[in-house]
Amino acid sequence: MKVRRVLGPLALVLAVSAGMLLAADKTKTAKQTEQSPPSAAAPAAMDDSKRALHALNRLTFGPRPGDVQRVQAMGVDKWIELQLHPEKLDDGALQARLSSYRTLAMDSRELLQNFPPPFVLKAVEAGRMPMPSDSNQRAVYESQMAAYRARKENKAAKGNDGAANNDDAKPAPQDPNAAGSTMTDEQRAERREARRYARTQAEEITALPPDKRIAELLKLTPEQRTMLARGLPQEDRERLLAGMTPQQRETVLAMANPRIVVAGEMQSAKILRAAYSERQLEEVMTDFWFNHFNVYDKKGPDAYMIGQYERDAIRPHVLGKFEDLLLATARSPAMLFYLDNWQSVGPDSAFAKNGGGYGQQGQGQNRRFRRGGFGQQQPRMQRNDPNQQGAQQIKQRRSGLNENYAREVMELHTLGVDGGYTQQDVTELAKVLTGWTMRQPRLGGGYEFNARMHEPGSKIVLGHQFSGGGESEAEAALKMLAHQPATAKFVSRKLAMRFVADEPPAALVDRMAQTFLKKDGDIREVLRTMFHSPEFWSRDAYRAKVKTPFEFVVSSLRATGAEIQNPFVIAQALNKMGMPLYGMQPPTGYSMKADAWVNSAALLNRMNFALGLGTGRLPGVNMDSARALGAPARDPQATLAMLEQKLLDGDVSKQTHQTLQKQLADPKVAETAMGADVTPEASAAMNTNRNPGVIAGLILGSPEFQRR
């Protein structure tokens, strides 16, 4: 029996879920808006029995089996303090899982060299860059260049020379087995031929030891390697890769698509860290700050810079001083490129005066927004030509003052949209920031200060004067922004939105902002103020937040004790849910509010994921439900009660429980839930080979589990 037979009766569950989530969110928002000041009435505290679960739901990506009991035994306050000091927690098991991902330790230049994007391949083919001498790297280059030439020849043969000339701007095709756009009959025939060839070659090569496999692959022509790499079905590919070293695996995968190796390992690492790290608060805060200082992985070479950005600019500062975090992100090549500050030129700078008329303000370079309240800005992103490289092209792009970063650092990173700044402040800050640029951005170069691009003279931002300091001017300006009362309140409110409620109590935000200013922007101290506040522990805060798709997926994996064998499968599920990792185009980052994620289509995708996970039909993820959740009882209703306790700590509403009971009363649903393709009577009589996965999936899709 297939899980899809269960989905028909689940329409009622989904409708109830959506209604309950939205209604509850509006009710809680109304309560918090009408709440009396703390001096008049303190918020009602939650029961002690719920404190451990609440702490786990907020400070982690969700409890694992047994976590609630472990936190209760340690003491909730002691456990929180330990999470605030992640250096005291051993994360060796996670590091072992990440050890096969070599790209995580590479800088942008190394990534571009090992996993060449189209513009690097074009430069090699034109003789502007050398072909690598390493045999593994050379195989990747040769395979990709062969594919590039084949695409050009194919389009030229169809009389589309112009399109062929621009084909180098396109990435190599995705895995041919993945879902994609509609193909022509010719493309389908090519795929069938590629699969036939790949299977034939793979059968012979897979039988060899791993070292000999890679040697045989390198003996093939570039065209043959490309056909094999792209035409092999996933299960055959895994057999081919089995036993290979990390470098060998990356080489084979990069023959099909180098960029997908970089993006895939980065996304996989994020999923594994969230699911398995003992330093859960650190992971939650890394996710929070990346979203706050968002960059987009599909803008030019940013895909090759984001891993280093998260590793070196964000992760070391997530619990440190906000000033240090702000400066680190401002200097990061990923941010400099994403918000275009690398190409900003002072109108009266030496570069503008001597560079051929670059002194006019580049209004066309600046992003404009349609304002719609906090988190609703929708930018019209300017996409840079991914093939521009070299000093001449970079010089041409530096056509004037660019205000993009100056605007966003005020509106989204520090002061907030109502932070009291003016358009004149934005322009003046943009001048202060001129000269903060990059060395060879298309080749993975790092940050540098270019004094010739810097605007000379005095600038005034928020009433503060900056002049004559060169690079230090921007440092001083960013530090000034980091210590503004408006910044303290804006950052504190966003933290409270993440950890307390979509509309956090004003009194709590004010206390957090006071700590921010008093403790020099110490993020750990601001969090400690929040975690020890009555508002954090109030009954209104309990399950007040709707999980984002990322939070839902990871919390499901943690709750069921799932073993993730192929994290990229999880990343693909998140794409379907509308939250691709590192894939938010606007600088606002993903919304933390419920209304961005609660709709029928989103809930259906969540339910499908939950059922796939629970029933073992999610490729690349292994869940031993009996081991993680306990052996099922003799009937579905008793199993439901057991799993409600294990997955929801027994905290399930009467309406949800009754709705799930009705689903299990359907013989077909009950039959599937107990894991046997037999009659309900025979299934009830059986005492072995029973699978509570469908019931677990139903509970994971419930309104209660989708809240934290």
TrEMBL record:
<protein>
    <submittedName>
        <fullName>DUF1800 domain-containing protein</fullName>
    </submittedName>
</protein>
<keyword id="KW-0732">Signal</keyword>
<feature type="signal peptide">
    <location>
        <begin position="1"/>
        <end position="23"/>
    </location>
</feature>
<feature type="region of interest" description="Disordered">
    <location>
        <begin position="353"/>
        <end position="398"/>
    </location>
</feature>
<feature type="compositionally biased region" description="Low complexity">
    <location>
        <begin position="159"/>
        <end position="179"/>
    </location>
</feature>
<feature type="compositionally biased region" description="Polar residues">
    <location>
        <begin position="384"/>
        <end position="398"/>
    </location>
</feature>
<dbReference type="InterPro" id="IPR014917">
    <property type="entry name" value="DUF1800"/>
</dbReference>
<feature type="region of interest" description="Disordered">
    <location>
        <begin position="152"/>
        <end position="204"/>
    </location>
</feature>
<feature type="compositionally biased region" description="Basic and acidic residues">
    <location>
        <begin position="185"/>
        <end position="196"/>
    </location>
</feature>
<dbReference type="Pfam" id="PF08811">
    <property type="entry name" value="DUF1800"/>
</dbReference>
